[in-house]
Amino acid sequence: MPLMEALDARRSSREFAPDALPLPLLAGLLWAAYGVNRPDGHRTAPSAINAQEVDVYVALPAGAYRYDAAAHVLTLVSPADVRRVTGYQDFVDDAPLDLVYVADHTRLRMVPAAQRTSYASAAAGAIAQNVYLYAAANGLATVIRAWIDRDAIAEALGLTHDQQVLLSQTVGFPA
Which of 58, 81, 95, 173 has the maximal Cβ count within 10 Å? Predict the structure, then answer.
């Protein structure tokens, strides 16, 4: 789909079919979100000073995973279905997947501490927009959410004190 058509089709949706995304579609979604698109390791979304401080976690019925962009694989972080924890809205319970954007502040040591959340939030916003455009181009529904229980998500994902939950984004087929 041409970019202008994807932008025209880009929208938030809060109604999802429970059907799992086929693996090739999920792989494409994750690569579009924050995959490696150059031999030097740079990504599909910008990151100030190339800190690549945002990690993308994927909450699926079979567990929670961290997307390893360099290897283009999912690494299990929890065998539990944590989708319910990723947001307060009812639709997160049954949607096939939720993405969680987590800042790792240890990668932002060159940035003053007071500015790290702003840097990471800008990167997470770019990643979320990539997901919106991929969803629009592939007939998927998505919505980004900031009204989330960050502490509960951090606990469910086993995050450290240097990691900060920024946003969640639900993705799936439209209902």
Answer: 95
- Across the range 44-70, mean pLDDT stands at 96
- Tokens linked to 49: 């000073």
- pLDDT tens digit sequence for 13-52: 999 999 999 999 999 999 999 999 999 999 999 998 999 9
Residue 170 is which amino acid?
T
50 phi-psi bin (left φ>0, alpha ψ -120 to 50, beta other): left
Distances from the Cα of 94 to the Cαs of 15, 19, 134, 154, 168, in angstroms? 10, 9, 21, 21, 15
Task: Give the pTM.
Answer: 0.95
Task: Please provide the size of the chain in residues.
Answer: 175
